[in-house]
Specification:
The protein has eleven helices and no strands. It is an all-alpha fold. The chain folds into two domains: about 55 residues; about 210 residues, MetI-like (MetI-like fold).
Length: about 270
C-alpha cells in the first residue's frame, strides 16, 4: 500500500509539470506585453519621450479604426497579398523540383550549385534597381523580388533533405528491387519533408520582406507604399498600424508552416 501511494504522484508529475510550465510561460508573456503597452502609453504623458515620434497605443488603436474605414485599406492589402502569393507560388513551383534534382544528381550540383550559392549569399534587395528597370514600377517587379527572396531557402533545404536520406534504407530498398521512383516516394520524399517545410518557413519571412521593401523602393499602391506615405508625413500612428499589419501577417504565415512542420515531422508512410 505504501509503495502504491508513493509511486502514483510520480507518474502524474511530468504532465503536471508541463502544464505548469506552459501556463507560467503564457502568464509571463502576457504580463510582459501588458507592461510594455502601459509603459508606452504613459511615457509620453510623463514627458519621458516625445509622443510625436512614438505615438501611444490608444492613438494607434484609433488610427487603426480610421485606416480600416477610410484609407482604402483593402485595396492596398489586396495588391500586397497578390504580389506575395504570386511570387511565392512561382518560387515553390521552381524551387521544389530544382531542389530534388540537385539533391539527387551530382552532375546537376556541379553545374548549378556555384552560381546558385553566389545568388543565395548576395542580398536579394540589391537586385531591386535592376528589377525595376527591367519590369517597371508595377506589380511584376515586386513579384520578381518575392520570387528571388523565397526560392533559395527552399532549394537549399530541399537539396539538403534529399542528401540526408538514410543510406542504409536506400541500399535495403535497392536490394529488394525497388525502382528509383519507389525509393523517391517511400524514402527520399518523406525524409526530406521536414527540411522542405523548414525552408518554406524561412522563405515566408524573406518573401514578406521582399514585398514590403519592394513597395518601399518604388510603388503606386500597397502596404509598403502606405508606409512611405505616412512615414514622410510623420503620421506615426498610421505608420505603426501598417507595420503591425505586416508583422501579424508574417507571424500568421510562419505559424501555419510551423504547424504543418509539427504534423509532418512524425509522419512516415508504411513501406
Amino acid at each position: 500500500m505504501v509503495a502504491v501511494v508513493a509511486t502514483a504522484p510520480q507518474k502524474r508529475a511530468p504532465a503536471a509539470a508541463r502544464l505548469g510550465a506552459g501556463a507560467r510561460s503564457s502568464v509571463i508573456g502576457f504580463c510582459s506585453v501588458a507592461a510594455f503597452l502601459i509603459l508606452w502609453q504613459v511615457a509620453p504623458e510623463l514627458g519621458w519621450v516625445n509622443g510625436r515620434f512614438t505615438s501611444q497605443p490608444s492613438e494607434v488603436a484609433r488610427a487603426a479604426v480610421e485606416v480600416f474605414r477610410t484609407d482604402n485599406f483593402l485595396h492596398h492589402a489586396r495588391i500586397s497579398l497578390t504580389e506575395f502569393f504570386l511570387g511565392f507560388a512561382l518560387a515553390l513551383i521552381v524551387s521544389v523540383p530544382l531542389g530534388v534534382l540537385l539533391g539527387n544528381s551530382r552532375l546537376a550540383r556541379d553545374m548549378i550549385n556555384p552560381p546558385l550559392m553566389a545568388l543565395y549569399i548576395a542580398p536579394t534587395l540589391i537586385l531591386l534597381p535592376i528589377m525595376t528597370i527591367w519590369l517597371g514600377i508595377g506589380m511584376a517587379s515586386k513579384v520578381a523580388v518575392v520570387f528571388l527572396g523565397a526560392i533559395f531557402p527552399i532549394i537549399v533545404n530541399t537539396m539538403a533533405g534529399m542528401r540526408e536520406a538514410d543510406a542504409k534504407l536506400v541500399r535495403a530498398a535497392q536490394s529488394f528491387g525497388a525502382t528509383r521512383m519507389d525509393i523517391f516516394r517511400h524514402i527520399l520524399l518523406p525524409g526530406s519533408l521536414p527540411s522542405l517545410l523548414a525552408g518554406i518557413r524561412l522563405a515566408v519571412g524573406r518573401a514578406v520582406l521582399g514585398v514590403v521593401v519592394g513597395e518601399l523602393y518604388v510603388s503606386q499602391a500597397g502596404i509598403g507604399h502606405q508606409l512611405v506615405v505616412y512615414g514622410s508625413s510623420m503620421r506615426v500612428d498610421r505608420l505603426l498600424v501598417y507595420a503591425l499589419v505586416v508583422s501579424v501577417f508574417g507571424y500568421a504565415m510562419t505559424t501555419l508552416v510551423r504547424v504543418l512542420e509539427g504534423r509532418v515531422r512524425n509522419w512516415r508512410p508504411e513501406t
